[in-house]
Batch of 3 targets.
Target 1
Amino acid sequence: MALQNYIVSLVHHSEYITKNISLTSLLSTLAIAYLIYQVIHAAWNISPFHPLGHIPGPRLAAATYLPEFYYDVIKFGQYTKKIQQFHETYGPIVRISPNEVHCNDVRFADEIYPLGGRKRDKPLHQVRGSGAMAHAIFSTVDHDIHRVRRTAIAKFFSRGQVSRLEPKIHNLAQRLCDKILAQGKDPLDIPSAYSCFSTDVISDYCFGESYGFLDQISWEPNFRKPIFSLFTPVFAFRFFPFLEPLAIAASSMSKHLPEDMGLLIKTLTVDMPESIKKTRADLDAGIKSKEQTVFGSLLESDLPAEEKSVQRLTDEAASLIAAGTETVGWALAVTTYYLLSNPEKLQRLRKEISEVVDTSGQLPSWTTLEKLPYLGAVIYEGLRLSYGVSARTARVATEEDLVYHGEWTAKGSKGPTTVSYRIPRGFAVGMSSMIMHHNENVFPESHTFIPERWLDDQMQRNKELERSIFNFSKGSRACVGINLAFCELHVVLAALTMRVFPHMQLYETTEDDVRYDHDLFNPLPKASSKGIRAVIVSPYAT
C-alpha cells in the first residue's frame, strides 16, 4: 500500500513538473517570438523600403520608440530638447520615431497645419494619456469628428462674443491688481497669482460663474500645481495605455488628497457633471440662463446626441480649464519677469499705455489696447518665450503626401544645401513651439527678451513675423480660445503695468526660473526652481 501511494505521489509530482515546464516553455517561446518580431520590425523601420526610410535622423529613433521613452519617461519631459539637437545635426526635417517626422522650418507650417478642407488627423500616440480630456476637441484624433466638435463651440469664442464679455475681464484684472498690492512685503508667487486670475476668467466666461480664486484671502488653493500633477503620467501612458484607468481612481480619493488637488478632482468629477445635468434639465424645462455658457451653447447646438453626453462635455470643460489656466498665466509670469528685469522697456510700455488711459485711470477697451504697437510687441515676445504648449503637436495628412523644399547649412559646410523630402500620407509630422521660437534664422538672439523685434521700420506691428508665433498652434486645429487669450493678455498686462509693476521688485528670482528645462505639454523650469517671486516695495495709490 505504501509503495502504491509513493508511485501515485510520484506520478502527480511528475505531472506538476511537466505542466510547469510546459508553461515555462510556452512563456519563453512567446518572449523569444516577441523579441524576434521587434528585431524584424526595427530592421524594417530603418530599411530603405520603409516609407520614411529616406528621412534623415538617428537610426535608433527610426528603429524604435526607445529614445522617446528614455527622454520623456525616464529623464522626464526631455525629448523636445533632444529633438532640437537632432535638427542641429540632421537639418530642418528629422525622423524622430518609426512613424513620425519633425520640422523646424516655419515656412512649412501652412502645409502641416492648413486651413480649409485639407484633412489632418492627430496621431493616436500623442493623444494617449489625455485622461480627463479624452473626449475633448484637443484629444480628438479624427479630422471630421474634430470639425463637428469645434464648429459647435467656436462661436462661443468668437471675437464678437469675447468683446461682449470683456467687462468681466476688466473687472477681474483690477481685482488681481488690488489683491497683489494688498500683499504687502511678503514674497508673492507670480505664477500662482496669475493662475488664480486666468482660472477665474475662464470659469466665469465659460460657465457663468467664477471659481472665486481671487476672492480668497491667500492665493491657494489654485489649479496650477494639480493640473501639472494630472499631466505627470502622460508620457508613461503613451507607452502603457492600459495603465491610464488607474488615474481615474484618484477621483475616489479626493478627500485624502492635498486641498488644491482635491478641489480640482471634485470640480472635474462632481461639480462639472452636476452643472451639465442642471443646464440640460433647465433647457428641457424651457429655462434659459441670462448669460450663455459653454454647456448651454453645446447642449443647444446641432451636435448629435452622443456628442452631448455628460462625459464628453465634462471632458471638454476640463480641457478649457487646463488650457485657459496655464497658457495665459505662464505667459504673464514670464512677461512680468522680463519687464521687471528691463526697467527701460517697462518705462517705454508705461508711457505708451498712459496715452490712452483717461484721467480717472480707466483702461480703454481691448480694441484700443491692441492698437498700441509696443504693448503688442511685449505680448508677442512674452508669448514667444513662454511657448504655450511647448511639446510637439503633430498632424497626420490622410489624403495627400507633403513635400518639403528648403535649404540647410550643416555644421562645417561652406554654404547652404538644397534639400527636398516627401512625407507620405498616413505618417505624423509636426513642430514644437520651443524649437520654433529659438530658430535663430527667424529670431536672432532668441534667448534674449527683445520686444522691438516685433516692430517694423515704422514702429508698427510686424504682421509677417507674427505668423511665426506658435503658442496657439495653427490651421484648422488651432486653439479655439485664442481671441479670449489675447483679450486677457492686453487688458491684464496694461492694468499690471500701470498699477502694480511700478511698486514691484523681483525676489530671489533669476532667468533660470523662467527658462525652459522640460515639458508636460506646457513648459517647466528646472525642478530646483523656487518659482518667479516678487515683493511690493513702495507705497502705492489705489
Note: The radius of gyration is 27 Å.
Target 2
Amino acid sequence: MTPARKRLLIRLAVYGGLFIVFPLWLYSCMIPMPGKSHRGPLPPLSPKQVELSSALRRDVVELAEKIGERNTYRHDALKKAADYMDRELSVAGKVSRQTYTAAGKSCDNVEVEMRGSQTPDEIVVVGGHYDSVAGCVGANDNGTGAAAVLALARSLAKTSPARTLRFVGFVNEEPPHFRSEEMGSRVYAKRCREREENIVAMLSLETIGFYSDDDGSQKYPTPLDLFYPSQGNFIAFVGNVGSGSLVRRCVRLFRERAAFPSEGAAVPGFLPGVGWSDHESFWEYGYKGVMVTDTAPFRYPHYHQQGDTPDKVDFDRCARVVDGVEQIVRELAGIAP
C-alpha cells in the first residue's frame, strides 16, 4: 500500500467515524430529558384542576367567541382583547402597557410584575400572545396560551417570589408581524436588553389545548420524527441549544410534579417549528427561552383555520398542563411551597 493510499484510508476512517459519532453526540446533548414521561391512564382531576378547567374555558370563550378575531386588521377587537388581559392581570398587581405602533395602529404588550423579595434583579417572564391570525378566532392559537398566563397570574397573585416574576400578554405574534420589528415580543425583548435587564428564564405558552391518543396523530419536522412518540397526547417543552439547561429543568420539574405526558427538545433553532413563537424574540436578544406547546401545526388540524374554535379545545387536559406549569414557575421564581 502506498503512503498516499494509506493517508486516504485514514482520512476516510476519520470522516466516517465523525459521521457516526457526531449525530450520536448531538442526540445525547439535545434529545434525552431527565425523568420519565407519564404513561397510562390520567388520574382524576383534582378540585383545583376542575376549577382551572372552567376558568380556562371562560377566558378562551371571551377571547375567541365574544371578542373574536383580533389583530391589526380587526383593530377594535385587538384593543378589546388588550383591555381584557389588563383587567384580568390586575389581580396580581398594577398592570402596565408597552404601547407602540404597528401597521400604523396603536398596539399594546400588557404586563403585570411581582417584584422579587430576595433577588429582584433576576427576572422570570411568563408570556403568551393574545392576538389571532387573520380569518381565525384563535381559540387554541393562542387563546389557550393567553388564558394560561391569566390563570397563572391569578394563582400566584398572593405569593412572594424571590425573583421578580412578570406575566405578559404579547401582541402581534401572528403574520404579518411575525419575526418582524413589529412583533410584540420583539419590541418587549429589545427593551429588556436596552435596559440591561437580567431575564433568567422566559416561558412562552403557545397553543396548549389539543390532544389526541390516536396513533399517527403527531407529526414532526425531520429528523425529530425518529425520536418522539406518534401519539399527540403530550405537552412539549422546546428550546434552542442555548436554552438547553432551561428546557431540561422545565421537563424535570414537570415530570416530578405533574401526572401528564411530556416531551422535551433542545435543538437548533433553524428546525421548522422550534422558533415559532415569542420565545424566539428572547433568543434574539441573548436570553434563554422555552416554548410550552401542544406542537400546533404538527398536531392540531385546525391550526390557522376558521375551525380553531373553543369546542376544539380539551380544557381538562389543558388544566392539567397549566397546573404542572405552575409548579415550574414556582421553582423558577423561588416561590416557597
Note: The domain at 44-333 is CATH 3.40.630.10 (Aminopeptidase).
Target 3
Amino acid sequence: MPTYRVYTRRTFPGADEYTTTGNRAYGISAVGNAFPIVLYLVAALVTVTTMTRFVSEERTNAGVLKALGYRNQDVVKKFAVYGLVSSLIGSVIGILAGTYFLPYILGKTIFKTSTYPALRLDFYWGISLIALLCSVLCGVAPALYIAHKELKEKPSQLLLPKAPTKGSKILLERIDFIWRRLSFTQKVTARNIFRYRQRMLMTIFGVAGSVALLFAGLGMSSSMEGMGNRQYGEIIKYDAVISQKQHLKLDEQAAINHLLADKKIAKKRGIYQEIFTKKIKGAKDEQSLALFVTTGKDFHHFIELYDSQSKASLNLSSHGAVISQKLATIMHVSVGDTFEVTSDEGKRYKIKVSGIAEMYAGHFIFMNQDYYQTVFARKFQENAYLIKLKDSSSKNVQDTAAAFMKLTGVRAVVQNTGILEQIDVIVKSLGFVMQILTVASILLAIVILYNLMNINVAERIRELSTIKVLGFHNKEVTLYIYRETILLSIIGIIVGLFLGNILHRSLLETIAPDAFLLNPTVSVFVYLVPVFSIIMILIVLGFMVNAILRRIDMLEALKSVD
C-alpha cells in the first residue's frame, strides 16, 4: 500500500524562502497591531493638552467677543474650526506618509535580499477613516468641552484672568513626621503637584507612554539580537547534517565514509534522524519535529543542551527525551509529561519529557539509543551524520555540502549557515521596524515634555514673577517650577518601565513564529536608554526654561491683568 504525504506552501520541501517571507510579514504585522495603539494614545494626550491650553489662552478674547454680542455658538465655532483644520491637515499628512512613504521604505529594506515583484501600495479607506476620526475627535472634542465650560461665565468674568486653583490640604500634610522634615521649597513642590492634578496625570502618563514604547522597541531588538549566534554557535556546534538514503549499497556507503574521512572535517558523529509532522493546537500549520538519537558520549561536542530555566547542562537519559523550549511551550508540556508523535505510516508513539532545552529556532527531540529502542521498539541504526569542519566559513560549508550532494547515497544536506541567514534576515527586518518606532518614541517624549513645560510656564507666569520679585534667584525660580516636572517624570519613568516590560513580553508572544522563540531577557542597555533619554530631554528643556524665565519682564507680567 503506497503512502502519501500532503504538503502546504509552508511545509513543502524547499519552501524556506516562502516561510521566511511569511515570518517577516507576520512579525511586522504583529508589531503594527500593537505599537500604533500606544503611540496613538500618547499622541492623543498631546493633542488634548494642546487644545485645552489653546482655549484657555483665548479666554479673554472669548470674553471680548461675547461682550460685543456674539453668541456662544459663534465663539465656539472659532475653536472648533481651529481644532478641525489642524487635525485634518495633520491626519492627511500622516495618512499619506503612512500609506505610501513608510511602507515603501520598509519594503525596500526588508525585501532587499530577495527578488519580488514591485511593491503594491494600496490605500486602506477603513484604517484611514478610523485614524482621521480619532484625530478629529482629539482635536475638536476638548476645544468644544472647554469652550462651553468657559462661556458659561459672564463677559466681565471672562475678561479677568482665571482664579488660581484653590489650595487644599494634601495627604502628605497629614503625615506630620514627614511633613515637618520637608523644606519650604519641597512643601511648595508637593502642594503644586496635587494642585494641578490634570497636568500631573498628563506628565506621568505622557512620559510613561514614551518610555514604555522605547523600552518595548529596544527590548524587541535586544531579544532578537544574537539569537542566531547563540543557537548556531554555542548550542548547536555542528556545521551540517548529512542524511543518507535507505538501503545503501556497499559502494555508496564506502563513498560516504571516504568523504567523511576528509581532513577538512574536524569531527563527525553518526546519529539517527527522523522528521515528524504534528498538528498542534494554536499553531497555524503542521509543525516539523526533528528527532535526533545518539549513542555517543561526545554528543555535547556537536549539540550542547542547556536547561531552559537554570541554563545548566542536560544529559540524555534512558527514561525520557529532551525537547526544545518552544516545542514545550506550544504543546503546554513540562518535565514528566508525555506527548505523541505519529510516523508517516500512521503509527503513534508516546514520548516522556525528561528535560526542556534552551533552543530558539526549530522544534527538536533529543534522546539516547536506549530510550529510542524503548519508545519505538526497533533497533537503533544510524542514518545521518553530524559534521564539524575545521573551517566553518559559509563558503567552505557550502563547498563541503555540494561535495556530499554529488554522492548517490546522500539524500540531503542541511547547512546551519543557511538557517542562520534566514534568522538574520528576520531579525534585521524586524530590527529596522523597531528603529523607526524607537525614534518615534523619543520624538514623542520631546513633544510631550516641551508642550507641558510651555503650558506650565504660560499659566503660572504671574506666580513666577511674584517669587522673582520676592528675591528668588534665577536658578531658584527655574527649580521652583521645574522640580515638579522632574519628580513627575521620575514617576513616569518607573511606570513606563513597568508597562514597557508588559508590552515587550506581550509582543514576544505575538511576534514570534511558531518555530521561533525570542529571549524575554533584555540587557541593562534597554533599561538605561529610556531613562537617560528622558534625563537628557529634561536637562535640555531645563536650560530652555531657565532662559525663558530670565527674560521675564516681572512688572509687565504682574500688571498684565490690569
Note: The beta strands are 240-244, 265-278, 287-294, 321-324, 338-342, 348-357, 363-368, 384-389, 410-415.
